[in-house]
């Protein structure tokens, strides 16, 4: 299903008999999904399913909605935070939608990007994250493990559960999958130890206040960390860099295959770019040669000076394809706008745990 149509359908913007019937069918499917989620969580809560503890502290970074909250830049930010303090850290992830090349499985987009953002940080990918947690400690002497997209992966115990909430679409249209984007009901907010409100700089004050009221309702506290993803520079396919000032006022073709294209569009708009075309693909889209031919054709017809995409998209472009205009990715840095003292305190507690376990 086209991602634009799917979001329009879920949000209720699509009107008429057919969209209404589709929403009804999706609502019925959500009932079965809700039952499965509640049973699974109950199994872990009551000890019917085993939770395994690693030999070192584990920090989970996840979300309540499907896609688009900024997990990858937040994981990179956390990894660098620990490295700056001399703590050996490793990243664990499932390896969702690994790319295929000539019949073999290659790294997925998140690993390709994290390898760029965190050079030298071990990143292990496997569905059995209990096993790769042991491997990270055994092979890399890791002192802290970051579990990427781990809120729903409850088999591995965590010492700090960080939940990301995207301020632009915090509750996934207020419905569980597949009718909305919620992976779990809002009552699951209680399981999180620390809340990140991402893209807080793009959020109107009244929206931020509504989110905090919901946090207060379900968690008994509205305390959270406000985070922004701010562009730092442009990067090319060979990791060459350029100033973002070169985009100001320039006609560009934007392209992305991420969970929240709206956030990317708003970021480009704030940079003063003139977006004359915007190609949206499904989250984790794998770019083919036909996709590249389409982008090249659009860029030429629209007389753009550049094609700009997220860096997560850039790493998936075939390296041998030549475009008629420069192709670049927007490098984003993670900035804490509010709650840094609280954030540092929580992570310093994790470092203290590593010191106690090694003494």
In short:
The protein is of the alpha/beta class and 359 residues long. It has helices spanning 3-11, 17-45, 71-84, 109-117, 129-140, 205-219, 261-270, 289-301, 311-314, 340-358, and strands at 58-63, 89-93, 100-101, 104-105, 123-125, 144-148, 160-166, 194-198, 225-235, 241-242, 251-256, 274-280, 306-310, 327-338.
Description:
The chain is of the alpha/beta class. 37% of the residues lie in helices and 22% in strands. The strands form two sheets. Strands 1, 2, 5, 6, 7, 8, 9, 10, 11, 12, 13 and 14 form a twelve-stranded mixed sheet that branches. Strands 3-4 form a two-stranded antiparallel ribbon. Helix 3 runs parallel beside helix 4. The N and C termini lie far apart (54 Å). About 1% of the residues have low confidence.
**What is the radius of gyration?**
21 Å
Given the structure, what is the number of helices? 10
**How many E-type strands?**
14
Mean pLDDT: 92
Low-confidence stretches: 101-105
Topology order in helix (H) and strand (E) letters: HHEHEEEHEHEEEHEEEHEHEHEH
Q: What helical percentage do the residues reach?
A: 25-40%
- Major pleated sheet: 12 strands, mixed
| DSSP strand content | 15-25%
The outline comes out as globular
First-to-last CA distance: 54 Å
Topology record:
Layout (H helix, E strand, L loop, with lengths): L2 H9 L5 H29 L12 E6 L7 H14 L4 E5 L6 E2 L2 E2 L3 H9 L5 E3 L3 H12 L3 E5 L11 E7 L27 E5 L6 H15 L5 E11 L5 E2 L8 E6 L4 H10 L3 E7 L8 H13 L4 E5 H4 L12 E12 L1 H19 L1
Helix pairs in contact: 3-4
